[in-house]
Amino acid sequence: MTDLDVAKAQARAPRLPGDRPAPVPALEVSDLVVEFGTGESATRVVNGIGFSIAPGESFALVGESGSGKSITAASILGLLPDDARIASGSIRLGGDELVGLGSNALRSYRGARVGMVFQNPLASLDPSFKVGNQLREIIRIHRPDVRRARQEQIAREWLGHVGIADAPRVLAAYPHELSGGMRQRVMIAIASLSQPALLIADEPTTALDAVIQKQILDLLRSVIAETGSSLLIITHDFGVVSYVANRVAVMKEGRLVEQGPRASVLSAPREQYTRTLIDAVPEIGTRFALERAGQPRRLGVRAGTSSCAAPEDAAAVAIGAEAVSAEGEHTASAPIPAPPILTADRVRKEFVVGGIGTGQSKRSFLAVDEVSLEIRRGEVFGLIGESGSGKSTFARLAGGLLPVSGGAVDFAGAPLSALKGRSLRALRPRFQYVFQDATSSLNPRVTVGEQIVRPVVRFGKARSVREGRARASEVLDLVGLPASYFERYPHELSGGQRQRIGIARALALEPELLILDEPTSALDVSTQATILNLLLDLRERLDLTYLFIGHNLAVIEFVCDRIGVLEAGRLVDVFDAPDLFSPERSAVTRSLLGAILPIERSATTLLRGSSADMSPSL
Amino acid sequence: MGTLKHIGWRLANILPVLLIVSVLTFLIGRLTPGDPIQGQYARTFTPEQIEAIRDSYGLNLPLWQQYVKWVADLFVAGGGKSIVQDAPVFDVLWPNFLNTIVLTVAGVLICAVVGITIGTIAGANHRRAADRFSMLFVQVGSNLSVYWFGLILIWIFALQLKWLPVSGMQSRNGGGFGDLLAHLILPGISAALISMLVLARFTRIGIVQESHSDYYKTFQSQGAGRFSLLGKHVGRNILPPVVNIIGLEIGTLLTGVLFVESVFNWPGIGTQLLNAVNGKDYPLIQGGVVLIALVYLVVNLVTDIAVDALNPRLKR
């Protein structure tokens, strides 16, 4: 019986009250209130929530950023930030009350009874010590009696458990020498080596690629099956919920909106909010289902529902409504022989590291290896690959942000990669970038309006600052933000709003091509949906061409007309979106396809119209 | 192997700096207005005698030849002859230079120990009373001037409490190492004050930042104690910036020492250079500047090598 079977069996067999004495829950949270600050100014971030997790159960706590889900997880072991505190309520771990315990008493529960895996594997190991040292330290905490040789052995065994084959190399490595997925495996080993009764995973895969995400989730499932731990997984993605959880609780603004078994929440959510979150997950085939149903291609727009708005910003509502009322969508996936706007001809990019003054020997690696492709005017071209496949490097080459090492890039007939200085600058307003990290791509000390105006004036798109301001309020309107946002600073905006500013800044120059480098990878699934809808909407209104870089095939398939797949710098596959399932697809494409976490709805979903076609068997 | 290569590279980097320093030092001496031989003694000399003196010191040669001769003198002739004291410059400077180094080392030790301690107390008690109090002390202390602070220390500890000597390096009737230490405390603290507070700030910020890092949470969630979290993980991760700051602050501290010497009547190179400037004794000034520049370079070199050695990304 595999771990999956165990999970299924547990989901299938609910314990009936009175059947036998109910086992003590692994975790029981009741009426929990967490506040930031004290007295009058205190703000409640967790407001009276309660749930319980049975032994061996996988429980998902779902919500958008700011919903209080991570604070809930942190409060269990008393790991709240300095200015936050548990105001009232109870947290019982296997029957022991944890609220009110001093930090010394809590310490005996940390690690030993509850293990935690955090979101960012790149930062959750100490960068200054070797992995082996860190593992041994943790083994020493839990088993102070064992000798060093035995510690070493336990560490090696656990690396084996988490699927690391070359344990000696990993133990002798510093964290920076390991990939993100590898580090998350080490983290899982650290969290579970004391075989705790409860494993808390706080967005364990949000920072990872789709392919790695699935591996890590598989690993979590097998580890809890092996150790018999319960799992509390914090996530914003219903795809993850569908893949690992037995039961789900949905959190919004510090309160639980609803909770229940996975199947019933996924297939028949009682709350509109839950439905919005579920519908925000892009799924393979959704666009074609919508097409057949005569609906515009927007996430969250389902037959019978007109809401596509994520609750995060009301602006999305306006866009959604507009989208619905827009006249029939033109089918861009039909092969219209449009002229190419961007042509890459055997483009190479070699990076040289080391050399004089670095103490390292000089070596080079090929980030982009002879990539040739054509982006046609008016299409959305998707470029997908795992991290390190060279997709972001290619994006930079395509817009002349990096010089090519070989080959050529042409933009609308101009030899972009051969141009320099003034002539390259003259071309720049015609293609613009939107980056993944909306926060760091905005200047924190300049109002967002000013950041839109500056390039407009600089490139001569407006003759005066006043004209630039007029243009800025136009584009703010285009991206669904009120003109009053002009005077705000980036930190006053939410992640989704910041990305809208990033898009507005690009659009202000009236570009023909937008290069979107993972524009939604850092966002919640619900925010991602509003941004994707916005991008689709803008493309129709403004006749834009997109080069869309991503690592999630479901997103790429939903947005793009043609898709290119990169692996280790090489373009291994190019195809039209409808041909995704064609047998000619490369192994890489198929592994990306296999990494998608579809939302498994039960049969009742079939009654809900077009969504029946949305979960193809993979 | 990489490490040795790296150190070699750092050493090689020093050569151009040395060249620039030597040229600048040389020019400082030659381009400043005033002439040692036109001072008050000159009135008693005939023009022929003055010419002879100028010739004997090479002051009539073209500038570049003077430079070459000067550099050569640094190596073979003890930095040339002091105009006022009629002895090789380095022979004149050396004993006082050692005294300055003694005071500087004492200052650096006080700076490192007290600075890191204050910073650790503040950082480990972030936003609590101990932190607020330490930072108040740091705020106030940063605004004191070295002169004033030194005098206040003398007044309190030497004149009122009579715990420590007022000035100088040794008691009149001599005395051993203990006597030296007693003389070192007040000037050491005065010289270290500003750098110590800078270091305290950096240590505090480093501890606060590292305590909010993800790896801290990892070990905290595994039940690691506060001592091991602060001592091992935070300590190791703030070590490179702390070493860097200490290295930078040694320079500041050395500048402070030159002033402190005059307050505490410490027989160091600072006092000597002050006299040399008054007497327009170019060779002595230049020799002193070269010595101090060498200290800066060595400190920077050692700091760079230490910081590199602490960076796991530069290993293997």
UniProtKB/TrEMBL annotation, chain A:
Location of the ABC transporter domain? 27-278, 347-593
Question: What are the record keywords, sorted?
Answer: ATP-binding, Cell inner membrane, Cell membrane, Membrane, Nucleotide-binding, Translocase, Transport
InterPro entries in the record: AAA+_ATPase, ABC_Ni/Peptide_Import, ABC_transporter-like_ATP-bd, ABC_transporter-like_CS, P-loop_NTPase
Gene3D superfamilies noted in UniProt = P-loop containing nucleotide triphosphate hydrolases
* Domain of life of the native organism: Bacteria
How is this protein situated with respect to the membrane?
Peripheral membrane protein
Q: Where is this region: Disordered?
A: 1-21
| Principal place of residence | membrane
Which Pfam family is an annotated match for this chain, by its short name?
ABC_tran
Alphabetical list of SMART domains matching this protein:
AAA
Similarity remark:
Belongs to the ABC transporter superfamily.
Protein's recorded name: ABC transporter ATP-binding protein
Provenance organism: Herbiconiux daphne
Mind giving the lineage of the organism this protein is from? Bacteria, Bacillati, Actinomycetota, Actinomycetes, Micrococcales
From TrEMBL, chain B:
Pfam families listed in its UniProt record? BPD_transp_1, BPD_transp_1_N
Q: Where are the transmembrane segments?
A: 7-28, 101-124, 136-160, 180-200, 242-264, 284-307
Name by which UniProt lists this protein? ABC transporter permease
Native source species: Herbiconiux daphne
State the similarity comment.
Belongs to the binding-protein-dependent transport system permease family.
**Matches recorded under InterPro entries:** BPD_transp_1_N (IPR045621), MetI-like (IPR000515), MetI-like_sf (IPR035906)
Q: Which SUPFAM superfamilies match?
A: MetI-like
Protein localization = Cell membrane
* Location, primary (coarse class): membrane
Keyword vocabulary terms for this entry:
Cell membrane, Membrane, Transmembrane, Transmembrane helix, Transport
Q: How does it sit in the membrane?
A: Multi-pass membrane protein
Q: What positions does the domain ABC transmembrane type-1 occupy?
A: 97-303
